[in-house]
Amino acid sequence: MSIGPSAETAAMEVEIEAGMAAGPFPKRIEGRTPMQLAWARLRRDRVAMLSLVIIALLVLTAIFAPVIVHVSGHDPFYQNRDTGLSPAGIPVGPGTRFWFGTDELGRDIFARVVYGARISLLVGVVATGLSVIIGLTIGVIAGYYGGKVDLVLSRFIDIILGFPFLITAIALVSVFQPSVLIIIGVLVFFGWTTIARIARGQVLSVKEKEYMEAARSLGASDLRIMRVDVLPNLLAPITVYATLLIPANIVGEATLSFLGLGVIPPASSWGQMLGAASEGGLYKLAWWYVLFPGLFLFLTTLSFNLFGDGLRDALDPGSDRAMAK
Fold first, then answer.
1. How far apart are CA 177 and CA 184, in angstroms?
2. What is the pTM of this model?
3. Is pLDDT above 70 for 32?
């Protein structure tokens, strides 16, 4: 006896209800963009994520420095000569009153370290951003047009690389007064060259691809091709290098400030504090004056470098380190 259409339909409905009772239907598989895949790989890198958390805390510390200093109860520029110095004139060590101790003038080191984060991070981020803009522009132009344009710009980059870093900084400071703008200018003057070389090499490797030829045949302008077809290929390597250039610029600012070529006191930066602690052997009497600025400088540069390594592995899943994770 055959089952009619109504009976067959009823049997199918029973099977569907039984399947729904057994559990939910499988989720539909959705595609993910390369950036989503990179973010998923980055989240699995515990060291990189911990470094990102530390960087976020440092940025928040710099942004909310006035609030943090207000909670500590000490002004970074006020000289606490009665409570911040011993009767012999020696700085007071870390304690409940001064969390990180005081300097040779009785100023609170904790407040100065917090305010120093503002200058160090500002110089590192701004100098890196300007270096990326200048280097990316010159590198893309040199690689895309090639020929005499590439030759002239490449020789210009070689000339810039021929200038010694410290001598150039000293020469600029001798003409202008030491300031944050001078530091940023010196760091950008040397920082954009490597980015330009990276961008030029990447453009040379992709400008003869089929999709580039197709864009030209459709009548796309050079500016549109560079913006739409070239720049996306530069995003990953330039982003990774930028995360590694930030700590290099922070250390560069600290070096110049340590040598007295950076910020002008009483403004504080980590390098300027280390330089002040080295004068007259003050660090021998007040070890905390070296420890805390140096620790923050070390922690900042290490966090940026570790995050940059993790970001490189996330954007390049074929690397040896990424395959080992």
1. 13
2. 0.80
3. no
> Which among 307, 291, 194, 195 is positioned nearest to 247, based on CA atoms?
307
**Residue in the block written with tokens 């060590």:** 93
Q: What is the pLDDT of residues 34-56, one digit of tens each?
A: 677 877 888 888 999 999 999 99
